[in-house]
Amino acid sequence: MKKFFGEFKTFIKRGNVIDLAVGVIIGGAFSAIVTALTNNILMPIINWVLLAITGGKGLEEIYTYLNKVETVDLEGKTIIDLESSIYIDWGAFITAIINFILIALVIFIIVKLINNMNEGAAARKNMFAPLTKDEVKKLRAEGKGKDEILAIAAARKAEADEAAAKAEAEAAANAPETEQQLLCEIRDLLKAQKGDK
Prior knowledge:
Blueprint: H1 2-13, H2 15-54, E1 63-67, E2 70-72, E3 78-80, E4 86-89, H3 90-125, H4 133-141, H5 146-174, H6 179-196
Antiparallel strand pairs: 1-4, 2-3
């Protein structure tokens, strides 16, 4: 039993479990907001448009009856008993689709904003590369502005790129051109080692 509670404690302490719990709670609250937006703002507008088009039926009254049960109310009018009838509720289905589209749209916008913020932070972090933080602080202390520091960083990067290109060219020039030459060099090295022994 002690081992079980120890494992449970370790499981709870994991960061991703807490993140998941927070996500579920926020997701539930967010879903309630979107449902309220759909039911209280969008659906009345959609029903109003449908009433204008169909002349009497809103989205909440669009049913396809598979088995219609009619009853008489207290005033003697014949009404449909929805509890006893079997029907397809198209209004509820369309409302669920609208909810899904709204939730997906808002989540897409939130993820896009977070990604843009992360990209912006990464761009700001690497803005003065290849200069170190200390070099940037020193240049700022000397009174250099952002544009001057960016120019120095660009010059340093160009020098590094040129040195890397030169080193790559030298390595390519010194590299054997064919496999045959490579094998000959290996053979000569092995012979030289045997001669040293």
